[in-house]
Structures are given as C-alpha cells and as structure tokens.
Amino acid sequence: MAIEILKDLRKLQVLVVHPNDEQGGDICQHIERIGCKVRMVWPCPNDINSDTDVVLLQSLHEHPFTDKPLWLKEDKNSPTIIAIVDYENPTVLQTVYELGAHGIINTPVRPFGLLANLVIARTRWRKELALTSRVEKLETKLRKIHAIEHAVAILERANDISHEQAYEFIRSRAMERRVTTEDIAQEIVNADKTLEVNVK
Fold first, then answer.
1. Which of 1, 27, 78, 169 is deepest in the core (most CB within 10 A)?
2. Domain that holds residue 85
3. Is the same domain home to 22 and 109?
4. Is 10 exposed, middle or buried (0-12, 13-18, 19+ CB in 10 A)?
5. What is the C-alpha separation between 131 and 22, in angstroms, rounded?
6. Is 38 in contact with 16 (CB distance < 8 Å)?
C-alpha cells in the first residue's frame, strides 16, 4: 500500500492552509520537492477545489470555526487532512481531533519526516474510505433485507400463507418484471398502506 501511495505522490494536489509567511513558504517548498502540486491559501477557505487530495492545515485553535466548512466534514469526498501545530496542549489536541486529522506535523516544519507523515496520512485516509464504503454497503443490504422481511410479513398476514410462499411470490414477481426483489418488496410495503395485496 505504501509503495502504491509513493508512486501516486506526484499526482497529488496539495493545499496548504497557512499564513503567507516564511514558514508557509518553506512548507510549500518541502511539498514541491516531494513532487506534489501545491498551492497556499489563507485564511481557511469555506470551499476548496474538488480535485484537492491533501490539505495541510494550520491549527485553528486560536481562530475556531463558527461553522465547519463542508470539505472538513468527514465523508467519502473529504481530502486527507494533516494538521500543522506550533505546540501541544489539550486545547490544540482537541482542535486537531475535531478536524478529523489523519496526521500531525510540528513546527518548525523540516523536510525529514514530512514524506513519511504524508504517506501514513494517505494510508489512513484510504483505510477510512474503504471502511466507510463497507459500512454503507452493509447498511444498504440491511435496509433491503428489512424491506423484504416487512413485505413477507404483510403477505403472510393478508393472505394467510407461509413465509416461504410469501417470499416465493416476491421472487417470482421480480423475475417476471425483471426488477429486484427489493423493488417488489417496497411496492408491497407502500401498497399495504392503502390496499390489500392478494396473491391467491
């Protein structure tokens, strides 16, 4: 995984959210030497380019958000976040935690360790993305199972048939209409509110 990320580094679009000072310039130079495409902005923007892969973000404990930007809210479209901190104390660490940072860089930022931090942060980001995707698929599957079981129960109650007969009705209707069993189940659930479903 790390080797794959190293190969992709030159493709990364990196945004450095930092005051336009000497330290900010040094950070950009270090990132450019790695091979990434980098740009710097300040103050923290409410929106960023959709192709931004990594954000190096100056810790905002002194200027907290009144409303957290959408790009900092954890979802599958969020970039990798690496926090830049001047020092460590409970307030700073709480801010970093709330940012959902995948890595931390201490100032003054030095070239040594920056590449490793970037690779580790991207690795963690990818794992979180894969886990989120898996959870979403499982939740979708559970919703489908629940809809089918609900529809089966409706058919059993309305038509005095067995669980197997009710499920077979749903399955055969789905095959006839070339749709999924979930589609048929949802139709039955919706119809149950207004009419009796008769399969006899």
1. 27
2. 1-130
3. yes
4. exposed
5. 39
6. yes
Contacts of 28 by beta carbon, 8 Å cutoff, 6+ apart? 16, 38, 39, 40
| DSSP symbols for 144-193 | HHHHHHHHHHHHHHHHT--HHHHHHHHHHHHHHHTS-HHHHHHHHHHHTT
Residues of the chain with pLDDT below 70 are 1-6, 60-68, 70, 73-76, 194-200
Can you read off the two tokens belonging to residue 90?
């409970």
Q: Are 132 and 76 spatial neighbours (Cβ–Cβ below 8 Å)?
A: yes
The enclosing domain of 108 has a CATH number of 3.40.50.2300
Residues 25, 84 within the same domain: yes
Instruction: Tell the burial category of 47 from Cβ atoms under 10 Å away from its Cβ (0-12, 13-18, 19+).
Output: exposed
Distance CA 126, CA 147 (A): 32
Q: List pLDDT tens digits, range 130-168.
A: 998 899 899 999 999 999 999 999 999 888 899 999 999
Element (H, E) at 69: none
Residue 28 shares a structural domain with residue 123 = yes
